[in-house]
Amino acid sequence: MKNRLGIKPKDVDAFAVNWDPKLFPWKLRFIHALLSIYILRGVYDIPLLNESDYYSYYVTLLTHILSGDYLTFARSLVRHVILSLGEEAPSDIRVIPVRHHLAHAASAYYFSGFSSAAVLSVDGSGEYESTVIWKVRDGNFEPILSMYSSYGSLGMLYEWTTHGLGLGRLEGPGKGMGLAPYGERSKYYDRLREFVKVDPEGDEPYAILVNGKKVKTKNWDKWGSIYTYVAENVIGGKSLNWNPRGELSKDAANVAWAVQRVTEEAMLATAKWARDHTGEDKVALAGGVALNAKANMEIHYSRIFNEMFIFPAANDAGGPIGAAAYVYEHVLGAR
C-alpha cells in the first residue's frame, strides 16, 4: 500500500479481523490463550508491548483472552509488525472483530456487484456456525438461517471423510474433488445418506445426524468426534487400506464420489431454501465449501437463481477482505 497508494501504516484507520472472539466457547478461548502465549514466547524474544515483566504481561494476556477480549493481543501484534518494518505505528491501533460468517458474507456481497442478493456462507466452522444464509439489501445483512457446526458442517464432513482416505486434512477436500469423478454410486453413498438428511422444504435444508438425531451444541471439542464417527461408519473403519500414492483404489474413488455427491445435494437444497426464504433472484457464495467448483456448477445449472457470484478467495484466506469491506462501510461510514 505504501508503494502503490502512498498509504503508510500510521494512516490506517482500523484493522478488521474475520473472527469475533467473544463468540468462542470458553474452552476454545483457553486453547487460544495458550497458543498465543506460545507464539509470543517462541517467535519474539521480548514482549510485544515492551514490558519488562514477562509474568505480569502473560497473566494479563491470559485474562483478556479468557474473557473473550483478544484485542490486547491483536493490537500488540499489529504494533510489533509495523515497528519491525521500520514504520511509524498509529497512536491508536483500532482492531475491530467481525463475526466469521458475516466476514464471509461481506466478501461475497460487496464484490458481487449486486445491490441485493441471497448470500450463502458455507464452511467448516466459524465461531460456532458452519452455514449461514443471509438476505442482503443495500449493504444491510439480515441472517435468515444459522446452522451449528455440530450438525451442519459440510466442510468438516468432507474433510474428515477424505482424511480417512489418507488425503490429509486441509488439503484433503481438494484432492477428494479430483478423485470423485473416478468413482460411482456404491454402498458408501448409501451409508453416508443415512447420516445426511436433505430437505429443501424443511425448517433447514439439510442436517448431519448421529443416531438419527441432530446434535446442537457450541461445544467445539464434540464436533471432531461427531464427524469422525460419521466418516468411520461410512468408510468402514478409521481409514481405508489404500496408499494414495499407489494404484487407484475403486473403494477410495467411490467414497470420494459419495461425499462429493452428498455435498452437491446439500448445497442444491441450501440454494433452493435460500431462494424460497429470501425471495432474491441473485446469489453470492463464500466460505470454504464455496471452493467446491462442481457443487457451484450444480447450483448454476439448476437455474434456481438468475445470477450467481462466488468470491474467488472463498475460504478463510478471503475472510479478512470481507471483514475490511464490512468495517469500511458499517463502522467507518464509507461506501
Quick summary:
With 335 residues, this protein is α/β, with parallel strands linked by helices.
CATH topology of the largest domain: Nucleotidyltransferase, domain 5
Number of E strands:
10
Strand order of the largest sheet: 5-4-3-9-10
The shape, in one word, is globular
Q: How much is the average pLDDT?
A: 90
Determine the N-to-C terminus distance: 20 Å
Please state the second-level CATH architecture of the largest domain.
2-Layer Sandwich
Helix content: 40-55%
Helix tally equals 13
Q: DSSP strand (E) fraction?
A: 5-15%
Low-pLDDT runs? 43-51
CATH class of the largest domain: Alpha Beta
Structural class of the helix and strand makeup?
A: alpha/beta
Question: How would you describe this protein?
Answer:
By secondary structure, the chain is an alpha/beta fold. It has 2 domains: 2-97, no CATH class; 99-316, Nucleotidyltransferase, domain 5. The chain is 47% helix and 15% strand. It has helices spanning 2-5, 26-43, 54-66, 71-84, 100-110, 149-152, 154-163, 172-179, 187-195, 220-235, 250-278, 293-302, 319-330, and strands spanning 15-17, 95-97, 116-122, 129-137, 140-148, 196-198, 206-210, 213-214, 282-286, 307-310. Helix 9 packs antiparallel against helix 10. It starts with a helix and ends in a 5-residue tail after the last helix. Residues 43-51 have low confidence and may be disordered.
